[in-house]
Amino acid sequence: MKLSTRARYALRAMISIARAANQNGPISLERVSKNTKISRRYLEQLAIALKNASLLRSVSGRGGGYFLARAANEITLLEIVEASIGPIG
Predict the structure, then answer these.
(1) Is the pLDDT of residue 48 over 90?
(2) CA–CA gap between residue 65 and residue 60 (Å, rounded)
(3) What's the sign of the alpha-carbon dihedral 41, 32, 85, 4?
(4) Which one of 47, 51, 54, 73 has the fewest beta carbons within 10 angstroms of its own beta carbon?
């Protein structure tokens, strides 16, 4: 199966956020952008889709950012792909 760029970037972003879960507090999109080499503006669009799918949670304000809504081992690749590009038939 060949994944779209949007799906691949969503997977990379989720992996980066999951790796940062061991640290204290949420990770900013700026940090995710540096880790993944994906533009921040594109990550903002992906974060909205992933948040709407209940895969991410956000904290606003100073020191805010994103973290996984569930444990990393409970999130499937299919959920991430479908959140980013829509249902797979």
Answers:
(1) yes
(2) 6
(3) positive
(4) 73
The 10s digit of each residue's pLDDT in 6-44 is: 999 999 999 999 998 777 789 999 999 999 999 999 999
Q: How far is CA 21 from CA 13, 69, 72, in A?
A: 12, 11, 9
pTM of the model: 0.90
Query: Which tokens sit at 67?
Result: 């973290």
Structure tokens at 20: 């940062």
